[in-house]
Specification:
The chain is mostly helical. The chain is built from 6 helices and no strands. The longest helix is centred in the last third of the chain and has 47 residues. It is rod-shaped. The relative contact order is 0.07.
Length: 142
Amino acid sequence: MLRVVVPIIVLVVFVYGLIDLIRTDARQTKGISKPAWFVVQILLPVIGAILWFLIGRPRDGGAEATPATYRHPTAPDDDPDFLHNLEQRRRNQAEAARLKKLQDELDAKERGLRNGTDDSRSPDSGGTHGSGDSAQGTDEVK
């Protein structure tokens, strides 16, 4: 049983030490450079990993601090500024389309009134509506 447990423990410590070394930013390693830590851990698997954990590993969070210092490009759908600008652009386009539609409707009504007013003045000026309205208005005043 001891012949199985000891190699498994050695392998786990070695792999965990390598993975922790790989995930640590090169600027945060202590003692020696990151490539030198690789050499130490490969040549001395258990001792190298123990030395890494005692000496080389950063004490201020290590792998947790790495994402904060490493700036990588984000996808457009993950970038809040891009999404905000996209939403603003969509709103502006919708507002411009709405204003254009209202302007077109207003222009159409103005054309209709111009055409309708010119046509309606001729029949209405001699029609009964004009004289009837004025007569009715004078009857109410009396």
